[in-house]
Amino acid sequence: MKQQIKKVLIIGGGIGGLSAAIALRKNGLSVTVCESSSSNSLKGAGILQPQNSFGVLKELGIYEQCLNKGFQLNSLKIFDKDGMIISEISERFMDENLPGRNAIWRSELSGILVAKAQSLGVNIEWNKTLKSYTEHEYGVNVTFEDESTLTCDILIGFDGIRSKVRDIMLGRKIHPQFLGMGSWRFPIEFPKSKSFNETLMLHNGSTKIGIVPLSESAGYAFILKPVKIDYWDDKMTRYERVMNIVDQFRGASTLIKEGLSKDSPILFNLVEEVVLEENWYSNRVVIGGDAAHASAPNLAQGAAMAIEDAIVLAEEIDNHDYFYTAFQSYFKRRYYRAQKVQKLSSELIRKELLREEGSEKIIMACHSFLSTAY
Ligand SMILES: Cc1cc2nc3c(=O)[nH]c(=O)nc-3n(C[C@H](O)[C@H](O)[C@H](O)COP(=O)(O)OP(=O)(O)OC[C@H]3O[C@@H](n4cnc5c(N)ncnc54)[C@H](O)[C@@H]3O)c2cc1C
């Protein structure tokens, strides 16, 4: 970037925002990240890093650390509700010689990203929630909820599915689209004798349970189940509700019955997506990750797509004389790929809701599509 960009401000210190900070700082830019939460631990259970994300993790310089802190999975095994195996899909869909999908606690991944960003000189400000921004000829003025202000040359929004940067940029509030399912996620412990290194997926009609090991003794599980758009999941009775769902399965579901403690945190959210028809940029402002293309989680590609956005954005900013053409090229390179993954994810949800056959075909189509470089 030959144009005078000195200060970059990133809103959102999640996976995408921290990745963008690392990639831009490596290119010599001064980068501040403002994150509304008060600590560096990403909320949630585990995250699955598929083989197509390994290249971008290497670019960020955190590949080895992610593998060391994570647990590598050879395959995805799909079972019916009685525990009979239906199919097995290899997680080495790009390279037989590389490890399969890496499963890692979100808090571990966050720790790795924060440490890397800070070692490069990225300034991270916690408890900083963007309230509004205004653009002027030479930059962007940002105001936070605590009424403090910052100025920057370009503003990057990696502020998630309910992105404020996106809504201000587009001049309208985007309401994420509900996809008909609810998702529960929670940590579980395994008895040592049950150690395994595959993702286990159990199907019962439109409901499915996933069990993911993150070490030999612990992991996390998730449930995807149809719910109504106005569904409210009461926290006080969540454990009992999860156990009731799990009771309708046999086979590996005993891992949850034995391994979920009453005191474990259980997260619930509605499954939603954001499909934008507009550009992901306007003047000095650009967005990426879930802010631009949040997808249903069932292909586990959201974080990988956010990191790819971050790397490509940094590359294009470095390659162009003007931020505006850099943003255009970034959008052009990313739009189709992110949209394709999003479409496959929502198609998978649709099939599961309608109890149609063919989920495996969609997973394989996604693997095949993502085998080409980003
Ligand atoms: C149930 C579920 C399971 C998933 N499992 C996987 C998986 O296994 N693998 C995978 O690749 N993906 C998975 N995903 C998707 C993945 O979590 C997201 O795609 C990814 O986190 C997107 O990264 P992001 O940085 O764009 O957004 P986020 O991770 O949402 O980060 C946005 C950040 O911005 C902050 N923020 C928001 N508003 C403001 C503001 N106004 N000011 C300052 N900060 C703000 C938030 O606090 C947050 O830290 C899953 C998603 C869900 C819902």
TrEMBL record:
Q: What range(s) does the FAD-binding domain occupy?
A: 7-316
Please indicate if the UniProt record lists ATP-binding as a keyword: no
Question: Which keywords describe this protein according to UniProt?
Answer: Monooxygenase, Oxidoreductase
Q: Name one Pfam family in it.
A: FAD_binding_3
Any coiled-coil regions, as ranges: none
Q: What is this protein called?
A: FAD-dependent oxidoreductase
Organism from which the protein derives? Bacillus yunxiaonensis
